[in-house]
Amino acid sequence: KDQVFQPSTVASSEGAVVEIFCNHSVSNAYNFFWYLHFPGCAPRLLVKGSKPSQQGRYNMTYERFSSSLLILQVREADAAVYYCACPGGYNKLIFGAGTRLAVHP
Amino acid sequence: DTAVSQTPKYLVTQMGNDKSIKCEQNLGHDTMYWYKQDSKKFLKIMFSYNNKELIINETVPNRFSPKSPDKAHLNLHINSLELGDSAVYFCASSQGGGDMNTEAFFGQGTRLTVV
């Protein structure tokens, strides 16, 4: 069955590097997409690809069936839900259940 | 300007009613979607339209009927609402072509509560 797995919660202290892990069982999926979601707002793409990449404070690691989102110098304002997704066919993304990030001062 | 906009943001209605959620995108994208955020917070695809043509229908009850009057709009009509339909519904769009690296742009969601 095509699924994406990620932890339900991750907690960190301000200023640390946070890692959110994701792995999948999606057939023929070679890419990962990481989205940021503040409840009540539109989910927003942070980083994507089929190789390690970086966008500002967001780094993405890449293995064939797993990826991690690394958030550098995490802040309280980064507390949100982070979704991992993989392509599951024609223009279709399969999402995980989201990881809620808690940041402590 | 909002890229993907959906209305209303909140919708509270009684069981058995019929309701619609509207979505519009001004990105010039060919493909539009409806996703449902279920009780476990998964974002699950419901429908995908490409140039007004239905591409994906993910085993959604036929009480849910999407309508795409043009490629910038994809509305979701729900008949005979049930308690289990309560969820957040997200509209999204992407540039077409089947590219496996194509990202989706989302609206802010519509929280539907059926009482």
Account of the 3D structure:
- The complex is a heterodimer of chains A (105) and B (115).
- Chain A is mainly β and 105 residues long.
- In chain A, 0% of the residues lie in helices and 51% in strands.
- Chain A contains no helices and 11 strands.
- Chain A has strands at 4-5, 9-13, 18-24, 32-37, 44-49, 53-55, 58-60, 66-71, 81-87, 93-95, 99-104.
- In chain A, strands 2, 4, 5, 9, 10 and 11 form a 6-stranded mixed β-sheet that branches. A 5-stranded antiparallel β-sheet of chain A has the order 1-3-8-7-6, with no helix packed on it.
- In chain A, a hairpin with a 5-residue loop joins strand 7 (58-60) and strand 8.
- Chain A is globular and about 40 Å long.
- The termini of chain A are far apart.
- The mean pLDDT of chain A is 93.
- Chain B is mainly beta and 115 residues long.
- Chain B is built from no helices and 11 strands.
- Chain B has strands spanning 4-7, 10-13, 19-25, 31-37, 43-50, 53-57, 64-70, 73-78, 87-94, 105-106, 110-114.
- In chain B, strands 2, 4, 5, 6, 9, 10 and 11 form a 7-stranded mixed β-sheet that branches. Chain B has a 4-stranded antiparallel β-sheet with strand order 1-3-8-7, with no helix packed on it.
- In chain B, strand 5 and strand 6 form a beta hairpin.
- The mean pLDDT of chain B is 91.
- Classes of the chains: A mainly beta (105), B mainly beta (115).
- The A-B interface holds A 29-31, 33, 35, 40-45, 48-50, 81, 83, 85, 87-98 and B 4, 9, 31, 33, 35, 40-45, 48, 50, 55-56, 90, 94, 96-109.
